[in-house]
Specification:
heterodimer; A: six-stranded mixed sheet; five-stranded antiparallel sheet; about 55% helix; B: alpha/beta; 5 strands; about 35% strand
Chain lengths: ~475, ~100
């Protein structure tokens, strides 16, 4: 089946409704004309008006009612409606002749809405036939028209009119020929111009609809690819918990809630060796595919460098230079990197332009750890980074996040901020790590309400269950 | 965001008023492309800048690379909020802030 068929059949249903509305409006105009004739504002013979008005209303209102009640889906239904419309006008035109000139354009203009040049052409043909018929009838029954008769006196009463026409014909004046030239031809010319304009419009719109459909299909294909990209990106992050069943000394949990678009947030954690756990929290500047690609490169480079056994400072310095190479798009990435020594509780951290971590020592509250900051990665070559050491004890919890958390914004453009984040953490500090992160997530969600969020929400938490060296010390 | 440009003693001053984020950063980028040839330095006046996102930082980074000498690009009247952003992202290390 033609891919456009669906669009056009959808359009046909809409156009049928529109045609029915035009029929109704035309019927209302007929009724108004009828009333004005009855009130003697219009000078048409009331008996002629009554006959033509009744017929016209039948032609106009019956298809309108069928469309409203049944809305037939068949392809011929539009022909039925357009024919009825044309006949309705023909009946009126037979009585009112010249007053109806502009009305002849209506069926063609309505047909134009089906965006089918063929259907517009058919409507044009119907209009011509109907116009010719109504011309022939109006010579006998229509109101006076100077193009048909010289004098208005001669046209009252059907019998008188018939005799008068016979008289003129025998006198050598061909009334039909004269009318055809003076009455029919000018109208036919006007309607032809209307037809040419309308058919150009329907052809152009037809092309536009096809092109629109093509674009829509390309767009869908792109969207599918983007969804695949988002899935690939999400599947790059470790997401099986518990992550290290062989290491009961610590508990780790992380989550990422992506914004609508693919973004550049990522977290990572992996064992460098049996005693060292590396944790990464990072945020690439910008959005979309460029950020996602940069994220993949950054994540790979950081993991590679860390697994070579380099210290956090050395990892950042190395990866910074690698990322600077050929970074024409001028992107950058903020990174917090920590390497935790499982046996001693020592955490060596380094921060390249990333948010401050939050640490809760056992019995206390979560507080921001204002660590030493270096420049973001990929900004400038050969920058020096600093690292720091701290010790985590049994029961301590470390929480790292991206700016999606503190920069979540509510409807009043207020930022969530680190204070609300710390409050939420402290309300949930006794819970399991997964519940802790869900607690923060829920608090952010409540805060932002219905306001649209543009940033990913990424969090990672580490809790120390036991430290081997301390256990041996106390024994 | 409103950007007010003025040149004095071959120093171009750009006063930023509003939010420098994804939607407004391209305006600043355009303003920085149209620098007259005789200008020897650029000063950013941040007195009325209320917010800066990573898109804004990117423009600062590009400008910093364009003006090789650190003293050729200066930030003035940096508010506490903006200063915190520059500190957290480490941009204080590579920018001259007065």
């Amino acid at each position: 089946m033609d891919v456009y068929t669906q669009v056009f059949s959808e359009n046909e249903r809409e156009a049928n409704g529109y045609t029915a509305s035009c029929l109704l409006w035309s019927a209302i105009v007929v009724v108004l004309t009828w009333i004005l004739t009855y009130l003697k504002v219009f000078v048409t013979d009331i008996s002629i008006m009554s006959i033509s008005g009744t017929l016209a209303l039948i032609f106009l209102l019956v298809p309108w009612a069928i469309q409203r009640l049944r809305a037939p889906q068949q392809a011929y239904w539009k022909y039925v409606m357009i024919l009825a419309f044309t006949f309705g006008i023909a009946v009126l035109s037979s009585a009112l002749s010249m007053h109806l000139i502009p009305a002849w354009a209506c069926p063609i203009l309505v047909a134009c809405h089906y965006y089918s040049p063929r259907f517009t052409r058919h409507a044009f043909f119907f209009v011509h036939v109907a116009m010719l018929l109504s011309f022939l009838i109006s010579i006998h029954v229509g109101v006076w028209d100077s193009n048909l008769f010289m004098s208005a006196d001669q046209v009252t009463g059907l019998a008188t009119r018939f005799d008068y026409i016979q008289e003129l014909m025998t006198g050598g004046l061909n009334v039909y020929q004269r009318g055809l030239i003076l009455f029919y031809l000018p109208r036919a010319a006007i309607i032809s111009v209307v037809y040419l304009t309308s058919t150009a419009l329907s052809r152009r719109t037809n092309h536009l609809i096809q092109r629109n459909k093509d674009i829509e299909r390309e767009h869908q294909a792109l969207e599918t690819e983007l969804n695949v990209a988002t899935n690939i990106q999400a599947s790059m992050l470790p997401s099986i918990f518990p992550a290290f069943p062989a290491h009961p000394e610590f508990d780790i949990y992380a989550s990422m809630t992506p914004a609508k678009e693919v973004g550049g947030d990522f977290y990572d954690f992996f064992l460098v060796d049996d005693d060292h756990l590396a944790m990464v929290m990072a945020d690439v500047s910008g959005k979309g595919v460029p950020a996602a690609l940069f994220m993949v490169i950054s994540k790979t480079l950081i993991k590679n460098a860390t697994q070579q056994g380099l210290s956090p400072k050395a990892v950042l310095e190395k990866v910074n230079n690698q990322l600077c190479e050929g970074n024409d798009a001028q992107m950058f990435v903020t990174v917090w990197l920590g390497i935790y020594e499982i046996s001693t509780g020592k955490l060596v951290g380094a921060n390249a332009g990333h948010e401050y971590p939050a640490i809760q020592h056992v019995g206390g509250d979560f507080e921001l750890y204002r660590d030493k900051h270096g420049m973001v990665l990929a900004g400038m070559e050969n920058l020096r980074y600093r690292e720091y050491e701290l010790y985590l004890n049994q029961g301590d919890t470390l929480y790292v996040y991206t700016d999606g958390v503190p920069e979540a914004t509510n409807g009043e453009k207020t930022l969530y901020g680190t204070q609300r984040m710390l409050d939420a953490l402290n309300r949930c500090k006794d819970l399991e790590l997964s519940a802790l992160l869900q607690g923060v997530q829920a608090d952010v969600d409540t805060f932002v309400g219905e306001a649209p969020q543009f940033d990913d929400l990424t969090m990672l938490a580490l809790r120390i269950k036991s430290i081997a060296s301390l256990a041996t010390d106390t024994q | 965001m409103i950007i007010t440009k003025s040149v004095d003693n071959n120093i171009l001053t750009l006063a930023l008023n509003g939010r420098l984020d994804t939607s407004t950063a391209p305006e600043l980028e355009v303003a920085l492309k149209e620098i007259p040839a005789d200008v020897t330095g650029v000063v950013f006046d941040f007195s009325n800048l209320v917010y800066m996102s990573s898109a804004g930082l990117r423009v600062l980074l590009m400008t910093r690379k364009q003006w090789k000498a650190p003293e050729a690009m200066v930030l003035t009247n940096v508010s506490e909020v903006i200063m915190e952003i520059l500190e957290i992202t480490g941009f204080v290390d590579i920018l001259t802030i007065e």
